[in-house]
Amino acid sequence: MISDTQLYSLAIFLGSASMLLIVLYHYLEVNARDQTPLSQERKADSIPAAPTGAAVAGGKGRS
User: Where is it located (predicted)?
Assistant: First the structure.
């Protein structure tokens, strides 16, 4: 049977290992280089659209 102290140590170890793996994954994902060039359709999706008149006016119509 596992004691409380062993269970506590195991939980701390597994939690620390999982956090380390999460940080490592995000570090590698952010710094990864894209291998395939973007298609024209995907390039167009990444350009933000110009604001519309309703968004500029605060979302309220003028009367």
Answer: Endoplasmic reticulum membrane
* Residue 54 · residue 61 · CB < 8 Å: yes
- What is the spatial distance between Cα 5 and Cα 45, in angstroms, rounded to a whole number? 54
C-alpha span between 18 and 58 (Å, rounded): 44
Q: Which of 58, 34, 56, 54 is nearest to 46 (CA)?
A: 34
Q: Where are the domains of the chain?
A: 4-44
Residue listed under structure tokens 């995907």: 42
pTM exceeds 0.90 for this model:
no
